[in-house]
Amino acid sequence: MFDLDRWQEIWITITHNKSRSVLTAFGVFWGMLMLVLMVGAGNALEKGMSSQIEGFATNSCFFASERTTLPYKGFRKGRRWDMTNSDIPVIREKVKELQYISPVLFGGGTDKNVVRGEKNGSYQVKGCYPEYDLIEKSKMLYGRYVNDIDIAEKRKVCVIGERIYEVLFQKGEDPTGKQIRVNGIYFQVIGVARSTSGVSIGGQTAETVVLPFSTMQQAFNQGNVIHFLAATAKEGVPVKVIQDKILEILKQQHQIAPEDKEAVFNMNIEEQFKMFNYLGIGIAALIWIVGLGTIFAGAIGVSNIMLVTVRERTKEIGIRRALGATPRDIIGQILSESIVLTVIAGITGIVVGVGLLRATGIVLSQGDQFFKDPQISFGMAVISLLILLVIGTFAGYIPAQRAMMIKPVEAIGEE
User: Fold this and answer.
1) Cβ atoms within 10 Å, residue 45
2) Are 260 and 153 contained in the same domain?
3) Contact status, residue 100 vs residue 239, Cβ threshold 8 Å
4) How many CB atoms lie within 10 A of CB 77?
5) Which of 16, 198, 310, 356 is the most buried (most CB within 10 A)?
């Protein structure tokens, strides 16, 4: 049953020590404010990182040729070598855990190498298989991506990035079927791509011309050379499994010493993303440790002020004991005052923190920022309230025990 007199007494006690209560409660307010702001910032960082890798296959690995560092089978160290078309069928056959694989060629980047009429620009050129769009996913604004028929027939078609479209074409103009000149050779535009990820290989998607791999090899006299190789593992298979098998095959195919670790550049994206995840976990743990430490520091201040209050009210407590107040009543009074003071300060910190996060989120939403929507979850708010209740109880426990031990006769006689 709601005890109005009890709550009036609690409020009078708090307001009676107004300046002291405000200063002490500020520690709890500040601790909760810092916890909310840090958790919100941590969530924003996590969301920003997730948005950067969204659309990019995290179960992927990449390979490129480097100079050998060890002699092998009559070859000297420092030998140059290249991956070739013949490596692809061997890898497909021997690596059963493989999901997608795409060779990649790089080119372009020269001054004004992409031209349409009087408009031009300097952009990267990339040749790949259709599977590459399943590794580094693009959103098609117009048309389609390179397909298997383009590869088989070596069609002179291309997919241009969004930025290239803005430079070469009028806004709203459908570019599909139109001709552009890339490195001196004409290609038909079949699509316009926008990147769905902040991660890209060989240049930003918005500023890259994508050609069918076979077409680029033939049109630019690349022979059967592969500059870069991208592969993904089947679901549930660690990327390390296909990474090791592909490395072994490439070394066997090109007479490279098995123990030569520098001859084949290789990168495991899954391991990189795991490192980011561990970093996120570490940051979250640090945030909670610092935040809770600050709150507990505030709780100690609340406990101290309650001890002072008990000392100042020794006579009052003694009279209540003499009039029949039980130890439970005395403990309940002190704990109630402590919890009320702590919860009011903490909730104020939560409200102010959420307001600041909301304002920050509105500012960040105006552009493409690495921090996204800095907010705390409802679960976090509930947990915070529970923490406040626990801390309020903790802060009032020792003062309550001290009050309970006051003897009525000694208290009444105290001046």
Assistant:
1) 18
2) yes
3) no
4) 14
5) 310
pLDDT value of position 343: 77
| Domain final position from 269, 292, 307 | 269
Residue 88: both structure tokens together: 């692809």
CB contact at 8 A, 248 and 261: no
DSSP one-letter string for 362-386: HHHTTS--SS------HHHHHHHHH
Same domain, 128 and 178: yes
3-state helix, strand, coil in the chain (%, to 5): 55, 20, 25
If asked whether residues 87 and 218 sit together in one domain, one would say yes
- In degrees and rounded to multiples of 5, residue 91 shows phi and psi of -65, -45
One domain, residues 301 and 357: yes
Q: Which residue has the tokens 């190498």?
A: 113
Q: Which amino acid would we find at residue 84? A: T
Give, as one character, the DSSP assignment of residue 263. Answer: S
Q: Let me know if 199 is exposed, middle or buried by CB neighbors in 10 A (0-12, 13-18, 19+).
A: middle
Residue 126 near residue 211 (C-beta atoms within 8 A)? yes
Domain count, the chain: 2
- For the segment 193-200, the average pLDDT, to the nearest whole number, is 76
DSSP 145: -
Domain final residue pick, 236, 269, 302: 269
Mark whether 223 and 307 lie in a shared domain. Answer: no
pLDDT in tens, 255-272: 999 999 999 999 898 887
Which structural domain, as residue segments, surrounds residue 71?
60-269
Backbone angles phi, psi at 127, to 5 degrees: -110, 135
- Using pLDDT thresholds of 50, 70 and 90, give the confidence band for residue 397: low
CA 231 to chain centroid: 24
The answer to whether residues 49 and 64 belong to one domain is no
Task: Check whether residue 233 and residue 84 sit in a common domain.
Answer: yes
The pLDDT of residue 2 is above 50: no
Alpha-carbon distance of 350 to 29, in angstroms, equals 8
Considering the domain architecture, whether residues 282 and 166 belong to the same structural domain is answered as no
